[in-house]
Amino acid sequence: MFEVRGSTRLKRGMAHAAETDATSVLLRYDGLDGLARMAAISFSQPPDHLTADRADFLIAVTRRSSKVLYVEVGPEVAETPNRDRYRAAAARARFGMRAKRRHGATVHSSGRVFNDWVERARADVALLTPSLRPDLIPMRASPGFRRHSAAMA
């Protein structure tokens, strides 16, 4: 799953050709451990151009308008991503994070900056410890970014 930069592996598993349709890409890999792994990337609207390693969207956003594009990554192609699916996943994630943060130790001091730092660290640890299925963690790009790209190794 992970490879140290600069080192070469003697053997690798088998990566299959990506399967694409109008709104999704399915990536399949057979690991050396004999397990088959899949990752599906689905879009709420068809990309203008879609290949195995790239999805291009030409979206015109005029003044006072907005456009929404939902992207889901999961173990298999599911329903078309939409607002309801995003909101449901976000609610599950919030509920799970609240439950996690109720457990474990807390630290309070007289220093507000230190307390804020500890609280952020607790949130980071909660995110790194699995309780939700990884395919159900919602993500949203900040509207302040003009261009967003993601690379998958």
Structure description:
This protein is an alpha+beta fold and 153 residues long. It folds into 2 domains: 1-81, no CATH class; 83-140, no CATH class. It is built from 2 helices and 7 strands; from the N terminus they run E-E-E-E-E-E-E-H-H. The strands form 2 sheets. Strands 1, 2, 3, 4 and 7 form a 5-stranded antiparallel sheet that branches. The N and C termini lie close together (9 Å).
Order of SSEs: EEEEEEEHH
What is the strand content? 15-25%
Indicate the structural class.
alpha+beta
| Helix content bin | 10-25%
- The outline comes out as extended
| Assembly classification | single chain
Radius of gyration: 20 Å
Main β-sheet, in a few words? Answer: 5 strands, antiparallel
The helix tally amounts to 2
Low-confidence spans: 140-153
Number of strands: 7
Into how many domains do the coordinates divide? 2
